[in-house]
Amino acid sequence: MSANFASPLEKYFSSNTNKFFINGGKWAGTLSGGVLKLGQSTADLGKQISILTGNTESAAACKAIETGFSQGRTGISVSRFIFSLHKLFTLQTFWETNSTGWRRVEYQDEKPIHIDRKELGVIWVKNQNNQWENRNTKQVSSDGKYIEDPSGGYVRRDWLNIAMEILSVIGRLISPVRWLHNLGVYDLGVHAKNLGHALKGIWGVVLSIDLVLNIKNLVEEVDVAAIRKRMVTAIVSFFDLITLPFEFGLGAANPALAITGAVLNVIGAGIFLFHRAAYY
Known about the structure:
Largest sheet: 2 strands, antiparallel
Low-confidence stretches: 1-7
Number of domains: 2
Helix content: 55-70%
Order of helices and strands: HHHEEEEHEEEEHHHH
Strand order of the largest sheet: 1-8
Oligomer: single chain
Strand content: 5-15%
Distance between the termini: 26 Å
């Protein structure tokens, strides 16, 4: 992102208002995907075990608790939708701060695209022999994957990240719409089922992209501490993806599948909370 284009946003990006929205989105994600999901999954596991043991009163109590956590998670989707819209309208869906002082070289067909002189900041200077020669004002990393760029500048995000962010906005818009339908605020009729299918598809694509990006980042990382973080992040993405079908009702008629889904959700939520506590 060029400095001229970024400068009108630079002041806002560093403002307390922007920090509020960014941190708010993180806290909403932690509450929804971690604390409330862990409570919902634990209650669901208790319900399934109670059903198997024939304890109907315990099953009913666990069901009520599970429903409460589930509605809380869906309600938070409204705030997460607002936070996602904020990122979209302030262009943070498409651009991100370059905090390292380096930016990735663009790749095509797994090969680095040629860096032109403008990118390298080539200038002409006279050497000791009074002869003109060109020099780069920006450096390229030894592996050829990064080019020096001013820290604090802005760089375009990966197109997969952009696609994931846009699909997330759509998914977080549909979630509260279906939630209000389930609460009886209005009746979507036959459209409720179609929205449900759309929601499954959207989140399936979003979580698949997230897993691919995290694995890609893990493979490309070289710093040991960063590798550990990337690895935990990839594990979180993996559990999010494999537990998604259970959140949409897989195993509802099969006790063994239902318990499997509940256990996976409890483990996934626990790893997610560990990830947030350790790395955010």
